[in-house]
UniProtKB/TrEMBL annotation:
Topology in the lipid bilayer: Multi-pass membrane protein
Keywords assigned: ATP-binding, Cell cycle, Cell division, Cell membrane, Chromosome partition, DNA-binding, Membrane, Nucleotide-binding, Transmembrane, Transmembrane helix
Taxonomic lineage: Bacteria, Pseudomonadati, Balneolota, Balneolia, Balneolales
FtsK domain ranges (all copies): 487-692
Source species, domain of life: Bacteria
Basic residues bias locations: 211-223
Source organism of this protein record: Fodinibius salipaludis
Protein name in UniProt: DNA translocase FtsK
SUPFAM superfamilies attached to this UniProt entry: P-loop containing nucleoside triphosphate hydrolases, Winged helix' DNA-binding domain
Region named Disordered: 210-313
Length: 846
């Protein structure tokens, strides 16, 4: 009793944590000693200790005890016998390791439940390994029994008795799954990784074969060229010899008359004037022929000329000619992949494979079957209607597109073209067509156009658009092939030229598919080093598929919880951060003395700009907003302002906006937004008013949905059938990209200065003043620009430190308050004034 109270008193004087530390050390020591006894195990020790009497342990003569080889003496010999011989052989070392693990956690005062999984894995691994070794020992005696111990041996025996030779298969499978689970908790992921690895090996092998083939081909060509060269040389020499021979013969044969005869044989030397005149004659002839050819062609714009006339109908007095555009020339099946493979090699920084064309569905049939009966019927109705209103038509061309057929009417000279438009509703009723669009006149022509939807429409598959020479060979920076025009031509634009795009369309009209088309086009042509997306999706589902390409293509704020922004305040913050990125990029461009991102990247890639000074390769950033209305309703001006600012200025620094909305009302698509988005797409909208809001004219209300769209870039208007890209296709592309390793660090947008800490008043302005404060003040006054990024670059310091210094400069009255994404004003005009201010501050400090 007394003893225990005494010890309690001794321990009671220690803090709880110290007690734990002592306990931890004790536990670790026990583990260490057991481990020591196991590693110094010697089978002969046990026989020896059995022969020892208790007396010998206390005898001064240590003779027999000294023969024990275990490092922990007699106790060690017993312990090692128990763990190694009786239990799991040397594999039992795992037990003391686990004990040490527990000891460490106790010592560090951590939750010992952290050891639960390692304990379970450790014990399981120990039993499994010793059983496998026991199995090997039972059957082949390759290993000594000290490796498996009696328990391992026994379990292996029992297992073999029950399952025969299958026992080793069971053990192998258990070992494999344990290893996989240890290496990677997610087995599916592992399978994917193994598959990916195999694919990479295959790819490398194919690349190697291709390179070898190319080398062989080059060698063969070189040899062939050499042989040809030799042959030519031989011929030349032979001719030379012949000429020399014949000349000498000639001279010998008729010396007196040489002059006249040789003059007759050799062609008359031609003067320069003769040659010029001849070539002019040839040019005149060629131009005459070309003019003839052009005359024989239709005199309409280029797109129209390529249409193929497939039928003519002269049943009544008005001719109708039916044309179907031939479409763009298809590229070879693997041409895009090959080109992309080469492109990927140009960026050795990251191993990246472009999505391959076989991830896309092939169109089931080539082209659209033209329904001539339908065309004749429509012609009859149109003519009939117009005749009743005394409008005479001389001829009709029908151009059959994937979704609609355009009837181009050539009215008699005395017909007032605008009159035809007023009969639109009449015509609509007569043709029973859902969306009938009348162009009176077709811009720039004296013809009237009536677009009537086809009875059966053709789906324009994305593959049939991407796998064309036009797309594959395009050298646009951000090529987007929306789909096909009425002439069946691929309609392609460079997003960098637009430079921003506003999309509107009622729900279900094909906006999301349209955005997916844009992303798909870009993914098939742009390397992740050159392109990042910022995806804002308040509807939360439309863009979620692209989460998988996060590691490659998405740019977010540092520490952002979701790669796709769905929440309004995060959207606002991201847009503001983008304006900051824009400002920083402008600073970089200014510093690099270039005018746009293309020239900047060229200069940087050529090593003309110093990374140390903050220069970096700038990827294009495409900002996608799927549903502007949701953002505008909740945040209004806060969202509108950064969008307008980006739209006004971001073009040169490679930031492009694609903004979509299903509610093209004036409070969503405001004047400010509209003014900054010259390129617009309208899918089907509910009313003419909506159409006017987005296109400044009617027409979108007459579209027929499912990707039927009108595109305008400020000038004319083009009707396009949007290419269809299915969810499954998007999934395969994103899986293909997402399963690759990607970048170690995501592309992060700049952090916004915390308004509260930046503009709020800090009690003591000179508290913890930074060592670089003075230097920073000088830089800022010299450049007359109060920006954090300037300090980062000039002083080579991190963002946070630069931000802190700017706060201190603000408190010292050197720069003005925080102004969102623009740099702060500098309140000190020159160095002299700065010196005075700094002197005052020093005095104040004292
Ligand atoms: N280019 C296209 N070709 C063929 N079908 C299309 C095309 N675009 C859209 N569709 C069809 O129209 C449906 C609706 O398209 P989508 O989801 O893109 O519309 P949306 O305008 O985004 O609608 P919401 O605003 O409700 O999301 C698609 O599921 C698809 O079946």
């Amino acid at each position: 009793m007394a003893k225990s109270s005494k010890s309690g008193g001794f321990l009671g004087g220690l803090s709880e944590s110290r007690k734990m530390e002592i306990l931890g050390i004790l536990v670790m020591a026990v583990g260490g000693l057991i481990g020591f006894s196991i590693v110094t195990y010697n089978p002969s020790d046990y026989t020896l200790i059995q022969s020892l009497s208790t007396d010998s342990l206390f005898a001064l003569d240590q003779g027999p005890v000294l023969r024990i080889q275990n490092g922990l003496g007699v106790i060690g010999a017993y312990l090692a016998h128990f763990f190694v011989h009786l239990l799991f052989g040397y594999m039992s070392i795992i037990i003391p390791l686990i004990i040490i693990g527990y000891g460490w956690l106790i010592f560090r005062n951590r939750d010992i439940s952290l050891m639960l999984w390692p304990t379970a894995y450790g014990i399981w691994g120990m039993v499994l390994l010793s059983t496998i070794l026991g199995w090997v020992n039972t059957n082949y005696e390759w290993v000594e029994s000290v490796w498996n111990g009696s328990a391992g041996f026994y379990i292996a025996r029992v297992l073999q008795n029950i399952t025969g030779i299958g026992s080793i298969i069971i053990l192998s499978v258990l070992l494999l799954t344990t290893l996989l689970a240890l290496l990677d908790r997610d087995l599916q992921h592992t399978v994917e990784r193994v598959k990916d690895w195999i694919a990479n090996v295959k790819q490398s092998y194919a690349d190697w074969k291709e390179r070898r083939r190319q080398k062989k081909e080059e060698k063969r060509k070189r040899k062939q060229q050499e042989a040809e060269q030799k042959e030519i040389e031989k011929q030349r020499q032979a001719e030379q010899q012949m000429r020399e021979k014949s000349q000498t013969k000639e001279k010998q044969r008729a010396k007196p008359q040489t002059k006249t005869e040789s003059e007759e044989e050799e062609p008359e030397p031609r003067s320069i004037d003769d040659i010029v005149e001849e070539s002019q004659k040839r040019d005149r002839e060629r131009m005459r022929q070309e003019k003839e050819e052009v005359k024989s062609l239709d005199q309409r714009p280029r797109a129209d000329i390529e249409k193929k006339k497939i039928a003519e109908d002269e049943e009544d007095d008005v001719d109708i000619s039916v044309y179907v555009g031939e479409g763009d020339e298809q590229a070879g099946e693997k041409e895009l992949d090959k080109q992309n493979k080469d492109k990927a090699k140009e960026v050795p920084k990251v191993r990246y494979k472009f999505p391959t064309i076989d991830l896309l569905d092939s169109p089931p049939n080539e082209g659209n079957d033209v329904d001539l009966d339908e065309i004749k019927e429509n012609k009859r109705i149109i003519l009939d209607k117009l005749k009743r209103h005394n409008i005479e038509i001389r001829s009709i061309n029908a151009i059959v597109g994937p979704t609609v057929t355009l009837y181009e009417l050539d009215p008699a000279p005395d017909v007032k073209i605008s009159k035809i438009e007023s009969y639109a509703n009449d015509l609509k009723m007569a043709t029973a067509a859902k969306g009938l669009r009348i162009m009176a006149p077709i811009p720039g022509r004296s013809a009237v156009g009536i677009e009537v939807p086809n009875g059966s429409r053709e789906t324009v598959f994305i593959k049939s658009v991407l796998n064309t020479k036009k797309f594959v060979e395009s050298d646009f920076e951000l090529p987007v092939a929306f789909g096909k025009t009425i002439e069946n031509e691929v309609f392609m634009v460079d997003l960098t030229k637009m430079p921003h795009l506003l999309i509107a369309g009622a729900t279900g009209s094909g906006k999301t598919v349209g955005i997916n088309t844009i992303i798909t086009c870009l993914l098939y042509k742009c390397h992740p080093d050159d392109l990042k997306f910022v995806m804002i999706d308040p509807k939360k589902i439309e863009l979620s598929l692209f989460q998988k390409i996060e590691k490659h293509f998405l740019a977010t704020l540092p520490g952002a919880e979701e790669p796709i922004i769905t929440d309004t305040s995060a959207a606002k913050e991201t847009l503001e951060s983008l304006t900051k990125e824009m400002d920083e990029r402008y600073d970089l461009l200014k510093d690099g003395m270039v005018r746009d991102i293309r020239a900047y990247n060229e200069k940087f890639d050529n090593g003309e700009l110093d990374e140390e000074e903050g220069h970096r390769h700038l990827p294009y950033i495409v900002v996608l907003i799927d549903e502007l209305a949701d953002l505008m309703m909740t945040a209004g001006k806060d969202i509108e302002e950064p969008i307008a600012r980006l739209a006004q200025l971001a073009r040169a620094v490679g930031i492009h906006l694609v903004v979509a909305t299903q509610r093209p009302s004036v409070n969503v698509v405001t004047g400010t937004i509209k003014a900054n988005f010259p390129a617009r797409i309208a899918y089907q909208v509910a009313s003419k008013v909506d159409s006017r809001t987005i296109l400044d004219t009617g027409g979108a209300d007459q579209l027929i949905g499912r990707g039927d769209m009108l595109f305008t870039n400020g000038g004319g208007m083009t009707r396009i059938q949007n290419a269809f890209v299915s969810t499954e296709e998007v999934e395969s592309i994103t899986d293909f990209i997402g399963n690759q390793r990607g970048y170690n660090n995501k592309y992060e947008l700049p952090v916004l200065e915390d308004e509260t800490s930046s503009s709020g008043d800090i009690p003591d302005p000179l508290e913890d003043i930074d060592e670089l404060f003075e230097a920073a003040a000088k830089v800022i006054v010299l450049h007359q620009q109060g920006s954090v990024s300037l300090l980062q670059r000039k002083l080579k310091i991190g963002y946070n430190r630069a931000g802190r210094i700017v706060d201190q400069l603000y408190n010292a009255g050197i720069v003005g308050p925080y102004q969102g994404s623009t740099a702060r004003d500098v309140l000190v005009d020159d160095e002299e004034e700065l010196e005075e201010l700094l002197d005052d501050l020093e005095e104040f400090e004292r």
